[in-house]
Structures are given as C-alpha cells and as structure tokens.
Amino acid sequence: MNLQQVHARNLIEAERFEDAAKIYDGLGKWKEAGEARRASKRTVVTQVQVDVNSLIEQVRKGGLITTYSCPACHSPIQISGSTDLSALSHCQYCGTTIQSTDLVEFLTHVVGYR
Asked: What is the DSSP string of the chain?
C-alpha cells in the first residue's frame, strides 16, 4: 500500500493526475483521489517578462558555470555564458519543455539576486 501511495504522489508530481486518482480510488482514499482530479482542472496563468540573456550574461561575467536539472528527468543541463537560449527551452534528454519561470528563479539564485 505504501508503494502505491508513493507511486501516486510521483504521478501527481509528473502531472498525471487521473492516473494518481485511479490509484487512490483503488486504495479507498477518496479524498486524495478528489484532490488529484481537482488539481488537473486548475489552470494557473502567469505572464512574466524577464531578460534571460541578461541573467546568462551575469553568469558569464561572474565566470560561472552552473548546472540546472531538468524538472522531469533530473538530467543535468549545463549553463554558462556561452549557452544559447534555444538550448534552454527543452531538455536535450527527455524533450520536456523547460518553464522559463523555473529557469529564471534558478538563475537569479545563482547570480545572487536572492
């Protein structure tokens, strides 16, 4: 049972809400199943304008090379001053689209804005 609950939580992390809800249904955890289904219906719209080129320039000026992990497969994505923005739009290993807000948050931390 614990393994199934861990699997369901991992499915929620992967945004596979219905699959997680089915596992919770099978375990008789109706509340968790409902929460998973409601999570699939939530839509968050955020409009953020940040100059990622400027953040990468800060990495270059600082002489830094940092590694960002893909949120889906956790593969390393190396970022340096010579990194092209197109290389940061998708994971080269699994193809997952990288959310610019997550990347900006990571880079602002790296260059010391937070």
From this structure: -HHHHHHHHHHHHTT-HHHHHHHHHHHT-HHHHHHHHHHHH----------HHHHHHHHHHTT--EEEEPTTT--EEEE-TT--GGGGSB-TTT-PBPPHHHHHHHHHHHTT--
Could you tell me if residue 47 is inside a domain? Answer: no
The model scores a pTM over 0.70: no
Convert the pLDDT of each residue in 96-112 to its tens digit: 888 877 878 887 787 77
Residue 27 within any structural domain of the chain: yes
Residue ranges making up the domain that contains 21? 2-41
Domains contained in the chain, number = 2
Helices (H) and strands (E) in the chain, counts: 5, 2
